[in-house]
Design a protein that fits this description.
Layout: H1 2-7, H2 17-23, H3 26-31, H4 33-36, H5 48-51, H6 66-80, H7 82-90
Helix pairs in contact: 6-7
Length: about 90
């Protein structure tokens, strides 16, 4: 969070750091899901609590076939360019 704030040139109030960290935790977002989910979660069956579900990375990894993933990657690269598509997939800006 400090790196993101620095990149965005947003100062961090050291006295509020613990509250900032708590508000960015999965548990906080889950317990305040209607404030965290887009439009309060109205688009998801089960509401915002469904949008903020388990907090497990990669749990959808086996949902798409290899062909589906390849088609997505090709489309992302075509629409966004290789650098942005890589960042979207990995978070790696290098």
């Amino acid at each position: 969070m400090r790196r993101i704030a620095a990149f965005l040139e947003i100062p961090i109030d050291a006295a509020r750091w613990e509250a900032i960290v708590r508000h960015c935790s999965f548990d906080y977002m889950k317990s305040h899901a209607t404030k965290s989910a887009p439009l309060g979660g109205i688009f998801w069956d089960g509401g915002a609590e469904t949008f903020i579900n388990k907090g497990t990375n990669g749990r959808w990894r086996d949902t798409l076939t290899a062909a589906d993933s390849a088609a997505y990657e090709a489309r992302a690269t075509a629409e966004l360019g290789p650098d942005c598509a890589r960042w979207l997939a990995t978070g790696d800006g290098a």
